Amino acid sequence: MGKVIAVFNQKGGVGKTTTNVNLSACIAQEGKRVCVIDIDPQGNTTSGFGIDKKQLEYSIYDVLINDLPIEETIMHTDYENLDIVPSSAQLAGAEIELTTIQKRELRLKESINRIRDNYDYIFIDCPPSLGLLTINSLAAVDSVLIPIQCEYYALEGVSQLMNTIQLIKKSLNKDLEIQGVVLSMFDGRTNLSIQVVDEVKNYFKGKVYATIIPRNVRLAEAPSFGQPIIYYDNKSKGAEAYTDLAVEFLDLEEDVI
Ligand code: ADP
Ligand code: MG
């Protein structure tokens, strides 16, 4: 049965989508069967895989609101072992529409259970908020992967993030775990970045990946070509870092088993 992981941090612009697209592509390249669910109305993960959001027949919106079986929304990407359930702009309205639906917090979980056996890993790209879409994601997953940007306010909002995880554990998902913390947008030329790494490691003892994602312009360019970094520029620092992160991630998973 596949493991389900939410890439979560309620702060925007910390590298959630970049990590989701690139880590999942690298894990798929390592031979694991991966599905990415884009539950962010912005749909940046969807376009990051080269899928045109305007041409979609169905999206995760139809699963959450119109009872469409999730299998019917799965699209194969251009890359081996890598499927996606796309997002659409309609999803912005789902936060409100969901409030009138029964068991509204568990809609996603029930759908994911239908496809869990088909994959080794299912990654969910969360929106930068704590609304019902995020709650659905946190209720549905085994663990959360937390990207943190190496910048001055890195730890601001982290206590709120941890409170949210605790609340979900108490109410909807008692087994929810922290998969790991990914430090992103590291700039080795600044003392600040180095200081942030220490602070975050101190806060999340033992949970921070040794692989740190550098600030790399190729990572910022790749989405406009609709390609994960390993296909856009495999020799870039960004490609190297996400490949290393995937290997580290999988090594740690094997240690657990
Ligand atoms: P989030 O999903 O948390 O809002 P994104 O992954 O979309 O964050 O990243 C925010 C912006 O920063 C995007 O424009 C993205 O291309 C850019 N970005 C993310 N990670 C890096 C990186 N390591 N180096 C350079 N730019 C990055
Ligand atoms: Mg995003």
TrEMBL record:
A Pfam family reported for this protein in Swiss-Prot or TrEMBL: AAA_31
CDD domains (alphabetical): ParAB_family
Domain (AAA): residue spans on this chain: 3-178
Reaction(s) catalysed (UniProt annotation): ATP + H2O = ADP + phosphate + H(+)
Oligomer status and interactors: Dimerizes in the presence of ATP but not ADP; ATP-binding is required for double-stranded (ds)DNA-binding. Interacts with DnaA.
Family stated for the protein in its record: Belongs to the ParA family.
PANTHER family in the cross-refs: P-LOOP CONTAINING NUCLEOSIDE TRIPHOSPHATE HYDROLASE, PARA FAMILY PROTEIN CT_582
Protein name, as recorded: Sporulation initiation inhibitor protein Soj
Annotated organism of origin: Alkaliphilus metalliredigens (strain QYMF)
Phylogenetic lineage: Bacteria, Bacillati, Bacillota, Clostridia, Peptostreptococcales
